[in-house]
Amino acid sequence: MRIISGKYKGKRFDVPNTFKSRPTTDFAKEGLFNILSNHYIDFDAQPIALDLFSGTGSISLELLSRGCSRVVSVEKDFKHCQFLQKTAKALGDPNWRLLHADVFKFLKGSFSSGYDFIFADPPYALENLAEIPDLVLSQENILNEGGLFVLEHGKTYDFTSHPRCIDHRTYGSVNFTFFE
Predict the structure, then answer these.
(1) How wide is the angle at C-alpha 165 spanned by C-alphas 160 and 167, nearest 5°?
(2) How buried is residue 141: exposed, middle or buried, by Cβ count under 10 Å (0-12/13-18/19+)?
(3) Per-10-residue mean pLDDT, the chain, length 180
(4) Any domain includes 164
(5) Quick count: other Cβ atoms within 10 Å of Cβ 161?
(6) pLDDT at residue 108, rounded to an integer
(7) pTM score > 0.70 for this model?
(8) Would you say residue 108 lies in a domain?
(9) Would 90 be classed as within a structural domain?
(10) Residue 110: what pLDDT?
(11) DSSP string covering 117-158, please?
(12) Is residue 98 part of a domain?
């Protein structure tokens, strides 16, 4: 796994081959960040980001590298969290906070301050994946005014008719749906 752009551009982290998660491909990740940078997020403004279902931490690392002032990564799998902790230690960025937690329980908590950008990359076969947009968007104080939520999902889901959907992009088998 490599960081595409920003202050950590070119850094690589070896993901154990025993991982159950599938990292977002470089092709899809590059496309996503081009769209974010050119249309939705001013990384110079140092946004605060939340990465749900962090897996390998690929998106979190890219967010940190591009200038987010704080990135919170939420991951339930213990082995993935161990890898994220090892990666965070190697990176040494004090703006990265890791939470070993169930995303659905985390989202039902209360938030005293929100995020400018929320990204979720649940397992494509997750039984209640279709509930994630409403769960995220219905929480008070989680998404700041003018904030953006992006859901990565497989082709079996279509959220374009959701009232808060503003964009949808496809990169091979990877789909990104944008909500505000």
Answers:
(1) 80
(2) exposed
(3) 93 84 82 96 97 95 97 95 95 96 91 91 93 94 95 96 97 95
(4) yes
(5) 6
(6) 87
(7) yes
(8) yes
(9) yes
(10) 75
(11) EEEE---TT-TTGGGHHHHHHHSTTTEEEEEEEEEEE-TT--
(12) yes
DSSP 8-class letter at 39: I
Give me the domain span that covers residue 137. Answer: 43-179
What are the structure tokens assigned to 64, written together?
A: 């940190």
Q: 131: which residues sit within 8 A by CB, 6+ positions away?
A: none
Question: Two tokens at 128?
Answer: 């209640």
Residue 129, both tokens: 């994946």
Predicted local confidence at residue 82, as pLDDT: 94
Going by their DSSP bridges, the two strands 165-171 and 70-75 should be labelled as unpaired
> What is the total count of domains within the chain?
1
Q: Can you give the CATH number for the domain in which 63 is found?
A: 3.40.50.150
In whole angstroms, what is the distance from residue 163 CA to residue 153 CA?
18
Whole-number pLDDT of residue 24: 78
- pLDDT at residue number 22: 66
Q: How far is CA 94 from the centre of its chain?
A: 18
- Sign of the CA dihedral with 113 first, then 140, 55, and 77 last: positive
